[in-house]
Batch of 3 targets.
Target 1
Amino acid sequence: QVQLVESGGGQVQTGGSLTLSCAAAGTRDITVMGWYRQAPGNEREWVATITNSGSTHYTNSVQGRFTISRNNAKETMSLQMNNLKPEDTAIYYCWAYSSYWGQGTQVTVSS
C-alpha cells in the first residue's frame, strides 16, 4: 500500500528558498519517484525525478535551482528549491511510479 503526503509549501518572495517534503509510505520498492507541478489553467508538468539508485533528472527551467533527494530506508522524498521565481508558483505534487499521487502543496512566489 502506497501513501504520499506532501508538506512544506508556502509563500516566499522572489529569490527565496523553500523545501518540500513527501512522506512516502510503501515506496521502498518503487523504482522512480518525482515531483510535478500545476498552475491554475495550465497542464500538470514534470519537475524532477529520482530513481531508487539516486539518479536524478530535472526540467530545464529548474535545473541548477532545485535539488531532489530520496531516502529509501525512511521512505521520504524532498525537493529543495532555491532562487525561486514567480513562474514557480503552482501546486506541487509528489508522484510514484506508475500512478500514485499526493494531495499537493501550494507554493506561491511573490514579485
Note: The chain has no helices and eleven strands.
Target 2
Amino acid sequence: QVQLVESGGGSVQTGGSLRLSCAASGYTYCMAWFRQAPGKEREGVARIYTNSGNTGYADSVKGRFTISQDNAKNTLYLQMNSLKPEDTAMYYCAATRSGPYCPVDNTAKYNYWGQGTQVTVSS
C-alpha cells in the first residue's frame, strides 16, 4: 500500500508562488498532482515517473508549475509560480504502483490519494 501526506497549501495573491509537498510511504511507479475547484471535475496538473523522472503537464500550467521528486526522501513536490485566481482549487497528490504508462489527466489510473491541500489565489 501507499500512504500520501500533503502539505504546503495556503492563500496567496495573484502572481505569487507556493510549493506543495507530498510525502509518500511505499513503492510507486509514478506520481501525479490533481486539482479540483468547486463545481468542476478533478483535473490532472502534472505527473512524474518515479524511476525515470520524466514529467508531463497540463497545458494550463505549463511554464508556470514544476513537478519534481526527491527519491531519497520519497517526497513529491509541485512548485507553483505566477499563480492565477483560476489556480484556486483543492490539490491532491496521487500515486500508482502499476505501469507502463501514466497519463497526466486520468484519475482512474491512480489508486492512492492524499487528503488534499487547499490553494487559494486572490486577485
Note: Residues 41 and 67 are 21 Å apart (CA to CA).
Target 3
Amino acid sequence: QVQLVESGGGLVQAGGSLRLSCAASGRAFSSYAMGWFRQAPGKDRDFVATITRSGLGTNYADSVKGRFTISRDNAKNTVYLQMNSLKPEDTAVYYCAAGGVALTADAKVYSYWGQGTQVTVSS
C-alpha cells in the first residue's frame, strides 16, 4: 500500500505560479512511476504529467507543456508539480497518483491516489 497526500493548492491570479507537493508513505516510493491528474467541475479527470521512477523521464499534456514541470525527490518520497503562467482553465482539483508504468497518461494504470488539492486561478 502507498498513501499519498497532496498539498500546495490555493487561489492565485492568472499568470501566477503554484507548486504542488505529493508526499508518499508506505511501500518503496522509488519503485513507482508517478503522475498528476486534474478534474474540473463537471468534467472527467484529465492527465497532466507523469515521471519515471528515476525521475529522468517526463511527459506532459499538451495543454500544460512549457508551463508545468513535474519532478521527484526519492530521498524525500515526494513528487512535485511546478505550475507557472497559470490560466483560469487550469482551475481544478489536482490529484497525484502512483503505480503506473513509465510515462503513461492512462489513469486506469495507476493503483494509488491522493485525496486531491484545489487549485483556483482567477482572471
Note: The mean pLDDT is 95.
